[in-house]
Amino acid sequence: MRDRKNPRIWTTKTFDRLSPYYDRFMKLFFPIGETGREKIVEKLTTGTLLDVACGTGTLLAMAREKGLKCYGVDLSGGMLAQAQRKVPNAEFQRGSFYRLPYAEGSFDQVVATNALSGDAIDAGEALREMVRVCKTGGRIYIAEWPKTDDESITEKIVIWLASLNDDAPQDYFGMFREMGYEPEVDALDKRYHIFAIRK
Question: To the nearest whole number, what is the mean pLDDT of the chain?
Fold first, then answer.
């Protein structure tokens, strides 16, 4: 874990400043994240979709082309401004994934990509909120960096380097199972999995 006396790198202000360049940044430095979004959109069915920590709205733009009614929530006003330009017919709200500004059972599908794997993030709390706002019978998808049993020196170095950038893998299997769900998993890479559950 990062020493919390040191300032965090990925703050709302950081995302605000990065928002005009974020799409290019992701394509250059994290192309598998774009693949993850595409794979999730392939799995989506009709109805309503909430993208949690929606960023610039890339996933919502693809989902809207499939005919879904799209909603996005993010803490960064800069990111939301980009998303509104990209997907003008979607509905956006500024808010935290710890307290989603929607009623219980509001959406057919709820997603989060590249949003929960941080060393200062309580991913379990965010997942519980995603489950709360999903309809019974609805689907929840996340694309994130999972914690594994790999104790190799290489993996420890990777995790240490990631911690310098506020990043860290999380035990998503354990979190979902603690809530009573057995997730379906699509491993796109050793360090990038899509998890899916039905509420």
Answer: 88
Q: What is the DSSP string of the chain?
A: ---TTSPPSS-HHHHHHHGGGHHHHHHHH-HHHHHHHHHHHHH--SSEEEEET-TTSHHHHHHHHTT-EEEEEES-HHHHHHHHHH-TTSEEEE--TTS-SS-TT-EEEEEEES-S-BTT--HHHHHHHHHHHEEEEEEEEEEE-B--S---HHHHHHHHHHHTTTB--B-HHHHHHHTT---EEEEEETTEEEEEEE-
Topology classification of domain 12-198: Rossmann fold (3.40.50)
pLDDT at 64 (0 to 100): 96
**pLDDT for residue 5 is more than 50:** no
Question: How do the domains of the chain map onto residue ranges?
Answer: 12-198
Cβ atoms of residues 137 and 197 within 8 Å: no
